[in-house]
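Marked as duplicate of an earlier ticket. Keeping the data here for the record.
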Amino acid sequence: MTGKRAGRGGGPAARWRTFTGLPSGLKALIGLSFVVALGSYMVTPFIGVLMVEAVGLDIRVAGVLVAVATFIQFGGSILGGPVVDRLGLKRTMVLALTLRTVGLVLFGLAVKVPWAAYPAVVLVAAGPALYLPANKAYIVTSVSDTLRPLFLGVSSAALNAGMGLGPLLAALLVDADPVLLLIGLAGLFALITAAHQAALKPVERRPAEPPAQAAPAGAGAGNEGKRAALRSALRPILFTSLAFYVYFFFQSFMGLYAAGVGSIQVLGWVMLLNCAMVVVLQPVWADRIARADYRLLVAGSFALMALGTAAMALGSIPALLGGTALFTLGEIFLFLRCDLELVDRVPGNPAFAFGVQRLTAGVGGLLAGVVGGFLFAHYQAAGDPDAFWLAVAAQAAGAALLAALLGAGRRRRTAAQAPTGPEQAVAATR
């Protein structure tokens, strides 16, 4: 089996052989990514509830803290590149997990000492802000360009599996004893931190281009190099921002809408369907997503999101589930390709690229929260909450049209141009 065949699929057996041939540290990181997401999403969706009901903060203060935490968690990732430059990928992940562990301990103490909630929020949010760019950059650095789509898809699947199961597990525990939940999670993250320290090997950066095509020494270094790279990535950054803008309408307002359509349990089924589809389909389709025409894929993804949210406006539970399935297909295609485009256009610095990606997520989420709050309140007051999803569908359709007009750009390197041998796939880790 050649590396090219493994990178392009070659069937489940070939993919499994590719996975088992990877360094142990990379395989451990993919497994640990699931555990990190599981532990994180046992607390992240409930931060507001914990601050009001367990800590006793005013709901307005809690709302401000949640907004601050969201911005730090996403926007703070822009610092991931500089931190990685100084500490390296492995030590950045260990530092990030340590910050989250301390933050969870402080959250547990805040039940008795309310002021501890303020630094707790900052530390709990700062952890993923640094961790996720370094996590994805470790994967990108450890495999060949040919295998990059597959293993970014596998990593996304592991994270989404944890995101889907974490809230379900926490819902069984949060009402019983929130202090026990928080301290228990702090212990879990301490173990995860130790596992990262023990299992991961430091990796060195490798050039994003073959040596014959490499840029002159120093040409891509420093702030000027980053600015030049970002200028070439303006279109992917725009579409990543729009993708998260549309996605956060679904993420932030589905709970309020689902509670009105049926019960809050409907939200659990909707989110489980969303996460399960990402887990199952994204790794399988990763290579096709990477090779697809950029303009058609981005425009088609937004069109699927528009169709999905329009279906949700029908108001029934089957329509919600069917609309979620369509919306998730667009999400599967769009988010992975956005990751790949940003890494491809910011060569040699994947941590910085993923930091930019997370910053765009924060901007998109912030705008969706502000616009969506006004829209949802308007349609709810008018007695027509279903029309909220039509407004979202119209915006997604507008994004699809914009992608059709502006989505042209340079094509990603094909597998034939990228390193393909199994020895190149793991050379960066030796």
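See parent ticket for discussion. Residues 1-9, 206-221, 411-430 have pLDDT under 50 and may be disordered.
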